[in-house]
Structure formats: structure tokens, C-alpha cells
């Protein structure tokens, strides 16, 4: 996951959050709206690319203000995925698998993927499926 993050100019984590959110929306009752995901993605993608470019060009700390709002949305989105995951495992007697809010903020998607992998190993997910295909 870390290699994909670097190779994609930090855009892979956005894809990961979208895909995981959609999968958890399919699995559980608590839903994160598509509008929220789109709004966050539209703000996050350019900010992530701008941040990487600013680091390469050595533009200093001026870009930190550019990413302040998108990074706040990133943390909020991670916490919402965490809440969605916790609700899912709680309903399946997996209280011991609940994700910590502190570790979610600090390690974000790496920690959430670790917790999802633990849930899969515990048999709470057969696999986190892709979003269902709609038939006409």
C-alpha cells in the first residue's frame, strides 16, 4: 500500500478510501454518502498532488495551508469509515476488533486495513466485496 501511495503521487489512499467505503456501505447498515466521498475526493486529489510537487520543488511551508482543509476532511472520512467498521463488527460479536479512534487518526488507512484484515481472519467478513453491480 505504501508503494502504491508513492507511485500514484498519494492518490491511491483516496481510491482506497472510496473502495473501502463502498464495500462497507454494501456490508453494513450505516452508510457514508456518495456526495461526501465525491466532495472529499475533489478537494483531496489536487491538494495531494500539489503537496508532492511542493516538496519536490522545495517550496517550503507555504503549501501547508493549502492542505489544511483537505487533510481535515481526510481525517473525518477515516473516522467515519472507522465508525462504520466498528458498527459492522459489533453486530457480529467482534467487539474485540473495534478500531481505536487515536490509532485511526495517527495511522489512518494503514491501521484500518489492518483491522479489516483481522476481521477477515476472524471470519466476520468472507471478503469485503466490491460494490454490487446494478441490473437494469
Number of strands: 0
Using the CA coordinates, give the radius of gyration.
16 Å
Count, helices: 5
> Residue-averaged pLDDT, rounded?
82
Shape: elongated
Q: How would a crystallographer describe the biggest sheet?
A: none
Percent of residues in beta strands? under 5%
Q: List the secondary-structure elements in sequence, H or E.
A: HHHHH
Protein structure class: mainly alpha
User: Percent of residues in helical segments?
Assistant: 55-70%
What distance lies between the first and last C-alpha atoms, to the nearest angstrom?
Answer: 35 Å
Low-confidence blocks of residues: none
Count of domain modules: 1
What keyword list fits this structure?
136 residues, mainly alpha, single chain
Report on this structure.
The structure is a single chain. The protein is an all-alpha fold. The protein has one domain. The chain is built from five helices and no strands. The longest helix is centred in the middle third of the chain and has 28 residues, at 64-91. It is elongated, with a radius of gyration of 16 Å. The chain starts with a helix and ends in a 15-residue tail after the last helix.
What's the SSE blueprint?
Elements: H1 2-7, H2 12-27, H3 34-57, H4 64-91, H5 101-121
Short characterization:
This protein is mostly helical. Helices cover 70% and strands 0% of the residues. Helix 2 packs parallel to helix 4 (64-91) and helix 4 packs across helix 5.
